[in-house]
């Protein structure tokens, strides 16, 4: 193999190189010298050498340009193997005898994007390489997006299962308690039964709390179902207002008695959100839940959870971005815990079923949208989690998500 341009370690895994295959060494040298000024050119002297190179570095090859007539296995055979093993690579065929049979074999077996005739025309070949490279990089991006979607879906479903299991476990606990307190009425009372109360209003509290949690679990499931339906509708809404998202969480979250009064919102700086509603709904519910748990752990005189919309810069000198802030007046976060949040699972509530995956999940969702998560806290002074959303230009670039 001959190379005319060094490949740095940062390029590893990204498709960018043009692999030229020809059994004539002079043809390889001429091609590398002529086109190496614009492209990363690698060469191989035959089918076996090319396949060996691809086995080692196939992820870096974007375009294959192969001669047809070579001793042993010909170029069409190579194209067929590459099509089967390396679907991301754009395939071009060079032939001095581009007759009908060769063309048909190249199309049917190798699905070539273009057939070039010898001697190569420099301008036409450069344009063919540019087009093939652009197409290969688009396919690589599409493949990466598909892989990202699949990974996000797996992670989301796992996290959703946890979020649904928690309220359903509470419902099950209340129902078990009521079943244990169930008592049959004395004979002659018309078959009536009753549930004993430890204190007045006890049973009604359990029924209302169970209903709130069941409604919340249903809202999570319904959100995902609706998103799946929207994916197949051409008239599905393409954007979501931040105020609508906050309103949905405010109306559907299963607050404990009196906790809804802790929530206050400032929605004046409204904006359009990128991404899917289901993920962002789950992110915001997670932040509200964390804030409420912090307040319950050390109830202050004036418990508050504030959700605000606005604009802020992620760092000095950077442009402002649309943000959603969730703040609480709880006990704050210890410094050694704060520096690990959003990067690794950290929980101070393992005994209560906490997994520490909440903020990690939020960070991954926001990163997939081109945004970020920032956590600020001082012990004894509450905590603020800020979701930074990409600017409209970045959002348009990420529309395939």
From TrEMBL:
SMART domains: HATPase_c, REC. GO terms for molecular function: phosphorelay sensor kinase activity. InterPro entries: CheY-like_superfamily, HATPase_C_sf, HATPase_dom, His_kinase_dom, HisK_dim/P_dom, HisK_dim/P_sf, Sig_transdc_His_kin-like_C, Sig_transdc_resp-reg_receiver. Residues 17-133 form the Response regulatory domain. Its EC number is 2.7.13.3. It comes from the Bacteria. The modification 4-aspartylphosphate is found at residue 67. It is found in: Membrane. Keywords: Kinase, Membrane, Phosphoprotein, Transferase, Transmembrane, Transmembrane helix. Residues 159-393 form the Histidine kinase domain. It is an enzyme of class 2 (transferase). It catalyses: ATP + protein L-histidine = ADP + protein N-phospho-L-histidine. GO terms for cellular component: membrane. The keyword Metal-binding does not apply. This is histidine kinase. It comes from Hydrogenophaga aromaticivorans.
């Amino acid at each position: 193999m001959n190379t005319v341009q060094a490949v740095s370690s940062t390029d590893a895994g990204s498709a960018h190189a043009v692999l030229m295959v020809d059994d004539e060494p002079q043809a390889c040298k001429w091609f590398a010298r002529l086109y190496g000024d614009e492209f990363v050119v690698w060469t191989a002297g035959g089918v076996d050498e090319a396949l060996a190179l691809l086995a080692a570095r196939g992820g870096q090859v974007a375009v294959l340009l192969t001669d047809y007539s070579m001793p042993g296995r010909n170029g069409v055979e190579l194209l067929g193997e590459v099509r089967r093993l390396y679907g991301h690579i754009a395939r071009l065929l060079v032939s001095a005898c581009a007759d009908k049979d060769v063309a048909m074999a190249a199309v049917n077996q190798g699905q070539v994007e273009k057939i070039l005739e010898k001697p190569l025309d420099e301008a036409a070949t450069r344009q063919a390489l540019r087009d093939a490279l652009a197409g290969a990089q688009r396919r690589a991006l599409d493949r990466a997006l598909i892989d990202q979607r699949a990974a996000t879906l797996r992670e989301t479903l796992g996290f959703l299962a946890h979020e649904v299991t928690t309220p359903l476990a509470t419902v099950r606990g209340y129902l078990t308690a009521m079943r244990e307190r169930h008592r049959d009425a004395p004979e002659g009372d018309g078959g009536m039964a009753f549930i004993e109360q430890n204190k007045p209003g006890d049973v009604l509290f359990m029924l209302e709390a169970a209903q709130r949690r069941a409604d919340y679990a249903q809202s999570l499931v319904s959100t995902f179902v609706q998103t799946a339906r929207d994916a197949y509708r051409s008239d599905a809404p393409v954007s979501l207002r931040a105020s609508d998202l906050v309103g949905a969480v405010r109306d559907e979250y299963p607050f404990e008695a009196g906790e809804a009064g802790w929530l206050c919102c400032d929605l004046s700086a409204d904006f359009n959100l990128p991404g899917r509603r289901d993920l962002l709904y789950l992110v915001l519910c997670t932040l509200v839940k964390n804030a409420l748990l912090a307040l319950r752990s050390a109830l202050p005189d004036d418990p508050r959870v504030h959700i605000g919309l606005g604009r802020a810069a992620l760092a000095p000198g950077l442009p402002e971005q649309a943000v959603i802030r969730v703040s609480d007046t709880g006990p704050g976060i210890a410094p050694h815990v704060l520096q690990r949040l959003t990067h690794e699972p950290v929980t101070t509530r393992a005994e209560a079923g906490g997994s520490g995956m909440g903020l990690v999940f939020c960070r991954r969702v926001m990163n997939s949208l081109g945004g970020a998560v920032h956590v600020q806290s001082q012990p004894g002074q509450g905590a603020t989690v800020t979701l930074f959303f990409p600017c409209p230009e970045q959002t348009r670039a990420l529309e395939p998500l």
